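[agent] plan:
  1. take the single chain provided in the ticket
  2. run structure prediction with default settings
  3. attach structure tokens to the ticket
  4. add a short note for the reviewer (M.T.)
[agent] executing step 1
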Amino acid sequence: MKRIVVLVLIVCASACKSGRITKHISRQLETPFYDNQFTGFLVYNPKTNDTVFSYNANCYFTPASNTKIFTLYSALELLPNNIPAFKYKTDGDTVTIKGTGNPTFLHPFFNDSTALNLCKNYSHVKVICNNLEDEKFGPGWAWEDYDTYFSPERSSFPMYGNVATIGKTDSLQVIPEALAQNVTEVLTRKRRKYNQNIFYYNKKQQDTIEVPLVIDSTLIKQLWQAILPNKVSFQNTNNESFEQVAYGISSDSLYKHMMAVSDNFLAEQMLIMASSTLSDTLSSQRVRTHILKHQLNDLKQQPRWVDGSGLSRYNLFTPTSFVQVLTKLYGEIPRKRLFNLFPVGGKTGTLKRYYHGNDAPYIYAKSGTVGNNYSLSGYLITNSGDTLIFSFMNNHYRQSTIAVKHHMETVFEWLRDNY
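[agent] step 2 finished; step 3 output follows
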């Protein structure tokens, strides 16, 4: 009898707590600030399997870079502990290498030289880099972003992050050096000529800039010739299967950097690279279809998922879908490793200036920002020690994104202190 009474009291206390939370957050979301925007919010406790709060959770939103959560999940499901740098086969003094979409080869941040080191051991190098079915740009990407750092082209065998890195101390410094002659100092807002590898560096510029490359056969030959003079030739793919795989850097180091700075190029290439585990012909669409059909066939609302980065406004996801995927990650990946992959509120990456904790971080999450839209999905640690999984999505507002973040922060802090 005593045990029943205790259970009843626990249930009543839980119901009262839930009701108090629902009442408080609902009151916040019903203020005039949210009148002229579309908002969705879902909070879930994986320990008790309880929905803590739900508001428009089954409605579709433009997710922006929250899409990268699905990309991270796909990579963790399909890629090994070290990334597949490229596939290859040897024949005497000749090595043939085929792209896997690996974005780290000679990348300014990772500077992976796995392919270069292997090729140096052979007299002849044949490169296959036309085995990608994807277009260089994703569907729905903004064409006017062609010269901006966040919109590099996709390719099967990227080099240097598919960008020209240009800076100045006493003189101009250009990576890759082979393109130094293509850079002109001039007063202009544009950083590259449209559809040509002719670059502009503003004379008043102080910072190092990254400008997307136009990936074509002429450029690829020029870059390979610069690093392996008179060794390299190119051939088209013939759908021949390559059994040998060379592995590069730690996969987690790639995931962590992609999530921390919300790198669109790395996200796109991660999906392409994941497709190399399914077929020698690369296709990010194949990966998205595979993941949704198999690992994520239980999603309550199937998303419209068109790219890896979230650059496209064609993407449509619900808060429920993000919480479901975050819950899968929480159950499958050790907590320390998982939280290390996400930006940390007040500490790292895109969350460094927001969601500060008192004595310790309390938010581990991925943000998503595109004009008039801001979302945040991830994990919240309460003062009571519970981990809550949430997705807070805001679309079509006209006020500043900073104001949206501050209003969200008020809700998160209240949850942290009162749950």
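[agent] step 4 note for reviewer: Residues 5-13 have pLDDT under 50 and may be disordered.
[agent] ticket updated
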